[in-house]
From TrEMBL:
Region of interest (Disordered), residue spans: 278-297
Gene Ontology MF term list: DNA-binding transcription factor activity; sequence-specific DNA binding
Entry protein name: AraC family transcriptional regulator
One Pfam entry name: HTH_18
Keywords from the UniProt entry: DNA-binding, Transcription, Transcription regulation
HTH araC/xylS-type domain ranges (all copies): 172-270
InterPro entries, alphabetized: AraC-bd, Homeodomain-like_sf, HTH-like, HTH_AraC, HTH_AraC-typ_CS
UniProt xrefs under SUPFAM superfamilies: Homeodomain-like (SSF46689), Regulatory protein AraC (SSF51215)
Entry's transmembrane regions: none
Length: 297
């Protein structure tokens, strides 16, 4: 049989690929790319540091070990993170006129997983090394390595779930520390020790998990506690301020009014007035009754 007669048997075999770029890039501080469109496929492997990587309408934060993929025609940007390096391996390639079923391999995924310490990391290093070498032998090795990389990253649950669970667990630790230590003078260094992550990465991950930065959440916790103390105790504004972590009552007062639109005194007064105007007139419950016990509890 001629080769052309065997092609319909080999629907899962695809060639070439053609690799047009394979290099390591050290981004300078403040480096960014906005709304770039490539005409080829691209793999971006984060060797060190972190970068925000929006692709189309999806936003990704890539950290050391993350492999990201985007297709021809997809609008993407790269934003370095302040205080973080960004070193990445970039592989740009295409399949010429030959179709390749990327949609069935990767579905709609861009972030393919975390491969720090995985053999895929070694494959990428070898691919970049051979891409610099002349000759057919080096070219064939590059093609073989790229296909192995694509095969290794085809599992949609590949280590990305583990990373997400690990990061979420660390953010829960940070959140619990803020809740339990809100009266204290908490610093970014405290949160770094708890999570083992850098300041900027904590901020990005916490926002992603809870919709606000750690210190915005701390302010919210203090605000809720201040309202509770004002309604349930006879403490003065200054005493409440100290109990929720503010040594200066004026700073506390400005924070409360900025967040609530009224001062703490005005807030309590409005609630007390509303309660008195809406409180139902009930006869006292007999001492020892179920309702009396429930109220006392």
């Amino acid at each position: 049989m001629s080769p052309s007669e065997t092609l319909h048997w080999m629907e899962h075999y695809h060639c070439p690929p053609y690799i047009t770029l394979a290099h390591v890039f050290h981004a300078p501080q403040g480096w960014n790319v906005e709304n770039r469109i490539l005409n080829q496929y691209a793999l971006q492997y984060c060797i060190d540091g972190a970068a925000e990587y929006p692709v189309e309408d999806q936003h990704y934060l890539t950290q050391k070990g993350d492999l990201l993929f985007h297709r021809p025609g997809e609008v993407h940007s790269i934003h370095t993170v302040e205080g973080e390096p960004y070193v990445c391996a970039s592989i740009v390639f295409h399949f010429g006129a030959e179709p390749f079923p990327f949609d069935s391999v990767f579905q709609n995924r861009h972030l393919l997983g975390r491969f720090e310490g995985h053999k895929l990391e070694r494959m990428l290093n070898e691919l970049i090394h051979y891409h610099r070498q002349p000759g057919l032998s080096a070219q064939l090795k590059c093609q073989g390595l790229l296909l192995q990389v694509l095969g290794e990253s085809a599992d949609p649950q590949r280590q990305s779930d583990h990373k997400e669970r690990t990061n979420l667990a660390k953010m829960v630790l940070v959140k619990n520390h803020l809740i339990h230590h809100y009266p204290e003078d908490i610093t970014h260094e405290d949160l770094e020790k708890i999570s083992g992550l850098t300041r900027n990465y904590i901020i990005l991950q916490f926002k992603q998990a809870f919709g606000m930065s750690p210190f915005q959440f701390l302010t919210w916790v203090r605000l809720q506690k201040a309202k509770e103390l004002a309604l349930m105790t006879s403490l003065s504004v200054g005493e409440i301020a100290r109990q929720v972590g503010y040594s200066d009552v004026h700073t506390f007062g400005r924070m409360f009014k900025k967040k609530m639109g009224v001062s703490l005194t005005e807030y309590c007064s409005s609630l007390t007035t509303h309660y008195l105007n809406t409180k139902p007139r009930l006869s006292p419950e007999p001492e020892g009754s179920a309702a009396s016990k429930e109220y006392e509890a």
